[in-house]
Amino acid sequence: MKNPPFDLDQQQGSASKRRSGRRDGVSFEDVKRAAEKLKQEDLSVSLRSVRAELGTGSLSTIQRHLHALRMMSSPQPDAQSPLSAQVLRALATEFDRAATERTARINADLKDAQAS
Questions:
Q1: % of the chain surpassing 90 pLDDT
Q2: Higher per-residue pLDDT: 34 or 71
Q3: pLDDT above 80 for 26
């Protein structure tokens, strides 16, 4: 009997091999540093200005990190977050890692499907 086309053990192993030689993308900390630098230079902190400062990264990833950064730095006046900034940063980092891993798996599946 043939292996099913979506064997998780094989996908996870091959995804980690594919990722070993490449950059995992822009991290929350990268975006935070870029935003702080722009603020220090009295420049607007926008999606495009952060991307220009970083010189790399997908706009969707940068947007996700900017949103998390803004949510942490200016919470809603009536709503208090039960999570600390450290927990929010850890969650943002984990979500980014999971999204990057899943994107790599999807791209590998697509490449395999196109090759066959």
A1: 39
A2: 34
A3: yes
Contact 89, 72 (CB under 8 A): yes
Output Rg (C-alpha) for the chain, integer angstroms.
Answer: 18
The runs of H, that is alpha helices, within 56-84 are 59-73
Statement: residue 111 has pLDDT above 60: yes
> Are the beta carbons of 54 and 34 closer than 8 angstroms?
yes
Answer yes or no: is pLDDT of 32 > 70: yes
On the CB side of 99, how many CA atoms lie within 13 Å of its CA?
A: 15
Statement: residue 19 has pLDDT above 60:
no
Burial of 92 (0-12, 13-18, 19+ CB in 10 A): buried
Between CA 51 and CA 43 the distance in angstroms is: 13
Cα 10-12-17 angle, rounded to 5 deg: 95
Token readout for 20 is 């070993």
From first CA to last CA, the distance across the chain in angstroms is 19
**32-73-52 Cα angle (round to 5):** 30
